[in-house]
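Justification of resources, computational component.

The compute hours requested in this renewal are based largely on the per-chain cost of generating structure records like the one below. Each record pairs the submitted sequence with a full structure-token output. That output is archived, and it is also reused by downstream analysis tasks.
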Amino acid sequence: MKLLVTGGAGFIGSAVVRHILQSSDDTVINLDKLTYAGNVESIPAGLHSTRYIFEQVDICDAAELKRVFAEHQPDAVMHLAAESHVDRSIDGPGEFIQTNVVGTYTLLEATRAYWSGLTDDKKQAFIFHHISTDEVYGDLPHPNELPAGAELPLFTEDTPYAPSSPYSASKASSDHLVRAWQRTYGLPTVVTNCSNNYGPYHFPEKLVPHVILNALAGKALPVYGDGSQIRDWLYVEDHARALYIVAKSGKVGETYNIGGHNEKRNLEVVQTICDLLDELVPEKPDGISHYSDLITFVTDRPGHDARYAIDADKIQRELGWTPEESFESGIRKTVLWYLNNKDWWQRVLSGAYKLDRLGA
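The structure output for this chain reads:
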């Protein structure tokens, strides 16, 4: 099987590519524009695999997409290419509309043209798997807002969309396009919506790696507001495994929510990382007794969602997937990975990974 993975040099995309190369005989065509967060060094196994092909292509480039489909003849598309950082979307929403909305439209049209020309048996076997986020649902009531003992609601596949940020609005738009192309044109699509991912090879602007690397450097650990916002944390390798199962076995027209069953307050996540670093790196930067001394509360993000939480019963019931990592095991693995892979994140922080691919 040949899988065209868009955004395969990003955080989740590279985990998907690594998982496919390590666990199957399938071929991966990794299509990535290589924006600031795209890093082919996140796929070390690809360098030596005959089942790995890299194409540096923008999903907004219709002509190049047509060439890639014609040249590689994929059996499935896993669409992960997206701008995904909420703060960046607040500062500059245009890039998010262009990539997440226009890019998804362009990819859908290129896929539809290719799929329309396939033989009947290949058409039947083809799937367009669109990977999205739980942020499209908006947010849920915080436990502090509910009566004592009240059951906490969860996002299900039927939860109405109510995105809060330019990022989540652009992803909601792309989800709607994918479902429209399935209903109007018959393109075989499936959608997944995931909770917050963390793990190895995460670009340092995101919360978990940002806290790890700032703490090691003795820098402030900024926490929005009072840190009470709740997220469901999903280890990225668990997510990659789920996505591959959906691409292989998901039912056309269905949506599957993927969550880690690990609701944590942001402040709790930061404190857990600090405690692990106290244990694993006892020699601290000058002037601090505990890494948690570096925690600094900053002005909250505009429109900050209070709580996300995924009901992942459907994917467990229908496809047999459950997460293997608890938050405690996954976050320990993540901290250890950053401690043991200094060369990777130093090259990212210095920009060396970008200079090398430009031939500088």
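The domain at 2-357 is CATH 3.40.50.720 (Rossmann fold). The two ends are 36 Å apart (CA to CA).
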